[in-house]
Amino acid sequence: MRPNAQSYQMFQRVTISESDVYYLLSNERRRETLTILWEFDDELTLRSLSEQIASIESETTPAPRPLRESVYNALHQTHLPKLATYGLVEYDPDRKLVRSNPESRSLARYMDTMAPVGISWGEYYRALGIFGLFTVVASLTSLPVFAAVDPLVFASGALALFALSTVYQLVGTLSRSLHSMTTLLGRYLP
């Protein structure tokens, strides 16, 4: 798999086909690499990145040494060069430093999924909005079963679901960010 031809506009940038995006994101370690790099504006060492990914995989900090070494080698030999080939990261294999390129953020929309359901958060919120609208309209038009309930109850229920879903999504994002930060800081603090 090779990146598609460059698009020449005012600034040169690599365009990646949708099939290549899915190919790149089919590997969990590449997804974790991008997620971690997006959280840090500066470059990271390969060692720090591999320790964070190993901690996520093992759900322990620090991760077992064999797993850390396995992740380190896989990132160095396969995943980071592949992401660099597509212009998503800058990787210096000699200095073992990596940073994300701004273009890589365009892949976030492909990664914004609810793991147990397998749909994006955007799709979930759209479906929730349509469901809420349907129940309110059904109640207002006196459809059987819906007419027995005040439309305000349906509207309040839909808004409550939006609020709970937003809190759930926010807590998940914050816990992942906190886990990444504690893993990184744990390496430097006694």
Helix content: 55-70%
Total discrete domains: 2
Shape: elongated
Report the C-alpha radius of gyration, rounded.
22 Å
Q: Strand order within the widest sheet? A: 3-5-4
Number of strands: 5
- The CATH class label of the largest domain is Mainly Alpha
Structure description:
The protein is mainly alpha-helical. It has 2 domains: 106 residues, Winged helix-like DNA-binding domain superfamily/Winged helix DNA-binding domain (Arc Repressor Mutant, subunit A), CATH 1.10.10.10; 78 residues, no CATH class. The protein has 7 helices and 5 strands. The strands form 2 sheets. It has a 3-stranded antiparallel sheet with strand order 3-5-4. Strands 1-2 form a two-stranded antiparallel ribbon. Helix 3 crosses helix 7. The chain starts with 5 loop residues before the first strand and ends with a helix.
Topology of this protein?
Layout: E1 6-8, E2 12-14, H1 18-24, H2 28-39, E3 44-45, H3 46-58, H4 65-85, E4 89-92, E5 97-100, H5 108-111, H6 121-140, H7 151-188
Antiparallel strand pairs: 1-2, 3-5, 4-5
Helix pairs in contact: 3-4, 3-7, 6-7
Summarize the structure.
The chain is mainly α and 190 residues long. The chain has two domains: 6-111, Winged helix-like DNA-binding domain superfamily/Winged helix DNA-binding domain (Arc Repressor Mutant, subunit A); 113-190, no CATH class.
Characteristic terms for this protein:
Putative trancriptional regulator, ArsR family, 5 strands, membrane, transmembrane helix, 3-stranded antiparallel beta sheet, 190 residues, two-stranded antiparallel ribbon, transmembrane, mainly alpha, 2 domains, disordered N terminus, Arc Repressor Mutant, subunit A
